[in-house]
Amino acid sequence: MRRRLTTIGQLGLGVLAGIGLYILCVLVMLILGGLTYSITLGALLAGVVSILIAVYLVVRKRDATSWPIIGGLVSFSVTWAVLAILDSPSTAFMWFR
Q1: What distance in Å separates the CA atoms of residue 85 and residue 46, rounded to the nearest whole number?
Q2: What is the reported pTM?
Q3: Among 52, 65, 71, 94, whose Cα sits 20 to 30 Å from the Cα of 82?
Q4: What is the rounded CA–CA span in Å between residue 51 and residue 59?
Q5: Angle, vertex CA 85, rays to CA 79 and CA 90, nearest 5
């Protein structure tokens, strides 16, 4: 008997993937720019990367894509990026200097 993840389980897996993506992006920003801005910019980078992943999967159009996982990933990453902007607007918009 095959066991499948429920939709809630897939959403939770997407959120866990978002947390992993955030940690990876913070580490990349830490290596590139130091500790000062890495947390906020890592959150922004994770949001952008998760949206790019979702756009790629929409364009690719395969039946095997688990949309609840992608939805959890994108919603967590974008929410985290918005919270990072609200927490530290000057740090978040240092990209545009």
Answers
A1: 13
A2: 0.79
A3: 65
A4: 12
A5: 170
The residue count for the chain: 97
In Å, what is the CA distance from 5 to each residue of 43, 83, 89? Answer: 28, 29, 38
In terms of Cα–Cα distance, which of 41, 43, 68 is closest to 57?
68
**For the segment 28-64, what is each residue's pLDDT rounded down to a tens digit?**
888 887 766 778 888 888 999 999 998 998 888 877 7
| DSSP string over the chain | ------HHHHHHHHHHHHHHHHHHHHHHHHHHH-SSSHHHHHHHHHHHHHHHHHHHHHHH--TT--HHHHHHHHHHHHHHHHHHHHH-HHHHGGGG-
21 within 8 A of 47, measured Cβ to Cβ = no
Q: Are 55 and 73 in contact (CB under 8 A)?
A: no
